[in-house]
Amino acid sequence: MVAGVLIYHPSVAHYLKFVATTVGRDKLLRTLQYFSRFYAWYLFRTNGTPGEIAPFEAIKKQFGLARKLMRVGKNVEHFKAAAVAADSKSLDPIIKYCAIGRQLGYAGYLTLDTATVLDAAGIRKSEGTKRLQKEAYRCWMFGLLFSTMSGVYSLYNLRQQAATIDKKDGEGVVASKKIEKERAAINLQLLSDLCDLTVPTSAIGLTSFDDGLVGLAGTVSSLIGVYSQWKKTA
């Protein structure tokens, strides 16, 4: 009886919908990957033994490879999104160009990242893999920067809209609540983008963040991704 109640509980159905999506599984793996990166660093800094550190290093490496394989072919999605944004006649010009830049950055990242799969999987080693991976990170960084600029500009627009609303009016109250909801979503995405920026900027040498900070920031952005995807599958 109890088992039946649990099996047919709405949360179980929601969970199954969540893990049925590639994005949902990727965000869960990403959370574990970056937390392991942080925790391996923490154990090393607190004089943990090699035996204690090894499992988390393995999770970081193997889950990273699994996610790399799951990303193969996803570049097409972002090239299409860039084309759709470029053809849009209704988007604000700044939002439009930021969207194109973001999608092309992500597409470039995924294209170059795919080119490193055979080397990462140990199937065929290549001397150019490190250079390709570095350029992939550079593309990801540009995509994130465009996303950040779009978020900041969107917040500015919302602030301008909020200033013209009369909150004493019924319609004004509804509009104000809508703006607050949009602002919360944008702020969450901005936090995710800023956390993610620690990864490519440290990988290409623009910053000197250690594995602890990168792992922690990656964990935060991954949890935001889990939360967002969970809401989408509700």
From TrEMBL:
It is found in: Peroxisome membrane. Keywords: Membrane, Peroxisome, Peroxisome biogenesis. It comes from the Eukaryota. One of its GO terms (biological process) is peroxisome fission. InterPro entries: PEX11. Pfam families: PEX11 (PF05648). Transmembrane segments: none annotated. One of its GO terms (cellular component) is peroxisomal membrane. This is Peroxisomal membrane protein PMP27.
